[in-house]
Batch of 3 targets.
Target 1
Amino acid sequence: MSLVYKNTTSLSFDDFIRDLHVAFGLSAAGLQTMWDKSNGKCLVHVANDLHHAQLLPGKHLDDLTQRFLGQIERRLTWDFLLAHDHRVARGAPAQVTLSLYDWCAHVLVPAASEAFFGEAMLRINQNLIEDFLAFDEDSWMLTYRYPRFLARKMYHGMQGNTDAFTRYFGLPLEERSDACHYVTSFEARERSAAMSDRDVAITIQLFYWVTNANAFKICFWLLTYLLHSPETLKAIQAETQPSVVDGKVDIGRLLECSLLEAAFNETLRLTSAASSARTVISSTPLGNKILRKDTKLLLPYRQLHFQEEVFGPQVRDFHPERFLGNKEVSSSSEFKPFGGGITYCSGRFIAKREVMAVVALLLNQYHLELEHPNQVLPLLDELKPSLGIISPLEGNDTIVVVKPRTVLG
């Protein structure tokens, strides 16, 4: 794998991005502008630099983290839950029963929408979240080039999001001045190249997809595993308790919680189906083989995560202890939940922070329990192609009963 990662001359990821631009409907003029290198670096590669500036450790990630925390803290209050989530089924007083998958999605995707784009995005686009989730559920069909008549829901969701982003970028700048560094900086570069509102919307919609598609699923699976591992849940609740005060998260303190971090890594190990793709630009030697020009190269990582010689016994089961106090496992070349090389996911830091914040807030503000004690662990939909975290099999979910801790006595 290291040979592939190091080779950025004859092995390229650009074709994958170009194909997505076409699939999302970028105009011919927009496509030409995005890939124009007449002034040096093309806009696609500028976007990648800005991703790193926003999402890798530094002042812009710190700012984004605070934006996320504010949104997550607000969306996890009891009053907000009762007032805004129509998926709630009320039972006894001060108790609700709900889909954990829907809850995670409807906390983290809206939180990210406002953290990245400011309050105007959701204010003018009431269907944004539902359209995104409809698209994301079958987004693999886009990469497999399914025709519209076989993927109506996916294309409808994608079109709804494109229209939403077009409306957003049609607003005067002063009405969306609270967007994050990446959004304002990349839009400025695109506007200087005379790109239309719709083409700007499509290119940044790609960023919205990749930054939203995985975090809520990680959160769902992590909480699901904990609910089926009550002793570990109890230990993490105690470990994170000092990090949550009056509904606010101390992110610095939270990131020092070693058991929660181990559970996060174990969840990634069990549920990630990340892979890296490259196009062979010119014939390339790889070991004792020759990769011919125009060949597509795919590096799947999921199989690496189930090697007993690396991760120990019972590799199909949730055991966070395998990562606890063992940096050799988390830094192993066999642990690749976020890919590698030039496509190593720059969003891995904010994903970890937002997921850990949600888990800490939920465990310390609420008492969570399975609706039925004999509720089985949801199955992973491993037959459906995935670009990141695997979704639960259709019809599988975790149904939870939620009670505020303040009324437990």
Target 2
Amino acid sequence: MQLNRSPTLLLRLSLVAALVHGQYIIESSSFGHGDRISSNRLGIPHWHISADGQTPPQLLSDKIVLTPPYPGNRRGAVWAETSVPQSEWTADLEFRATGGDRGGGNLQIWYTKEGRPRAETPSIYTTAAFDGLALVVDMYGGRGGSIRGFMNDGTTDYKSHHAVDSLAFGHCDFSYRNLGRPSRIQVRQLAEFFGVSVDGKQCFSSDKIKLPAGYYFGISAASADTPDSFEVYKFVTSTAPGVTRELPNRDPPSQPPPPASNPGSPANDQSSRHTSSDAQFAVRFTDLQNRLERLSQSLDNVFREVQQLASKSESRHQDLSHKGMPNEQLSAMDKRIQSIESTLQGHTGQFSNIQSSLKDSHSTLNQGLTEHMTHIISTKTPKMSSFIIVVIVFQMLLAGSYVLYKRRRANGPKKYL
């Protein structure tokens, strides 16, 4: 029941968002929000893929691998070929980083005026002067990962700067490695607000940053000797809430000029009323057309999300069915368990007889041992009269010895001086 409710909820939310806020995706600055990133695995529409000349990024149907798991010291990047026409936007990035315990590397999100630079796979430490924004995800500070923001107006050469890390205007801790799931970074630029959030939590923000329109997005990654593999699943740029789609200019249909009439005549008044009603109807029709277009786009996005959820659920079901135990082994194990149960049930009477025999032996042993010990104590213990006789005899022997000693001493020769 829960799975059936989720698409309906997504549909309602998308419809409400489309009708109330009017937010839509900028297709020329986005990828990965549809069924596939690339239909032919040769390129991404409206994006340029760059590499360091050794190993090009691997483009799959659902992700692009900027740096491979092996070997290390690789660079990869994707750059938008079309600038963002709006000054208020939201950019969402989903990526995953995997590697060894001591793996290293960094991921950059660029929003620059010049777009794709000469060094097409730059990092924040190797780039020259640029005009725009750079967000860096790496293991800086040794705290398990962080994300930092850098701004430049084209006057600072980061490649030759002696302390690039000190130029960051905002940062927060971000554990992104080996999570087993994609991580999400969202960048928002509104009229009076700029903010960066990671996995739905606010990272840093400022009301003093205003990025202009007409800049280009880019994503680059670099790996170390012990590499981290950076995989990008999607990058979606959408307009801010309340921004409508820019439609191409259309010339109004040519109409014959109205017949000349005298001012104040009834025909002139009737023509003015018709002109006013036609203008209002045209405005309402244009607004309705824009709403229908946004509704259609939202429905397409919802259907794509539902298809992705269905494909993921099917793939998980197939994986579980392949990894599970075959039916023959399950039946054989069930038969063995049943035979063991039947054998145990057949020996239940023998177990009862053994238990009763053990109880009888235990009670007989306890009773016989008690009686035997009592008999030994009563018969083998010396009596008090025997002890008294022994004491008296011993005293008499002592007294006789003393008397004999006195007599010998009295009868012995005496010496006089």
Target 3
Amino acid sequence: MLEFRTQGFNGYAVKYSPFFDSRIAVASAANFGLVGNGRLYILGLTPKGIVAEKWFDTQDSLYDLCWSESHENQCVVATGDGSIKLFDIGLDEFPVQSWQEHKREVFAVHWNLVAKDTFCSSSWDGTIKIWSPTRPDSLLTIPTHSCTYSTSFSPHSPSILSSVSSDSHLRIFDLRTPSSASNHLTCSIPIHTSPSLQQQQQRPISSPAIPPSEALTHDWNKYRSPIIAAAGVDRLIRSFDIRSPAQGPVAVLPGHEYAVRKVAWSPHVSDILLSASYDMTCRAWTDGSAMGADGGGRGGFPQQEEGNIRMRMQGRMGDPLAFGGGRELGRMGRHTEFVMGVDWCLFGAEGWCASVGWDERLLVWDVRAITG
């Protein structure tokens, strides 16, 4: 495990470069993001450890970031003053572009992985905006009418994006539809809903009713285009099939003791995802879709000892909230404060990831070490 100290700044988000396996960006904020400056770190993984190649200070806290998919040196950050800034790490001090349209804190930014020429942002002001790095104004504004903590383009389509909000709903937008048709909204799924009656007949214990709660994070599965995982304040991770929005979650993964701040599907294995939580842990899960519930080894993740598998399976089968055959594969508990962000490395051996938290630390570690 490698470590870098973000001295005086609490980590909020971390992203591996899509171009270099040795470059990581961290969005951070002074004073836990309540008041004060922000800092964007550009870090390099070297034989001597993690080194800061460059950093940029901002007047307000940084809550999220994403790398450009078209320019290897550019990075977009979301700030607490409602602005969005584009930095070029080949230049010093100042952003190359800045946009100020959101009325409140910007909590998420995400680059279009297919078209590669646009990115989206979401804010506490209840809107999602689409941007081009070459345009001074936003291309489109989509109202959600609720504090929107997370938004993302589908990795399978250039025109489909999603969001989760404080009203406990997962929304799907298709930009190919007319704007008059509910502002491109094609699907709205209540995240807190229980699995459908037909699904519950396949299990011996029915799920108790769950009240609505704020949804903080979501992520598209990289291999199964209709599958999205979402999580938030109620501590549960759920996956949904957007082809059947009325059926409720296809998997429910309980286990975290406090709110889940970030989920990220593996770029290497279709049924594996990581989560980061206020309970100071990062956890690896299988959603049970790829024979994961039987404990078998799969692409790069070693098979676990039979006794450990049996013990974990017995514990999950007794949890009335669990559904879909998924389970926790392991956890990393080296952070000493809220874990705010986690991301997978796209390159090299399957399983390397990075996490950041309010303990002013970036940790780079191998998921296989906690699942073996």
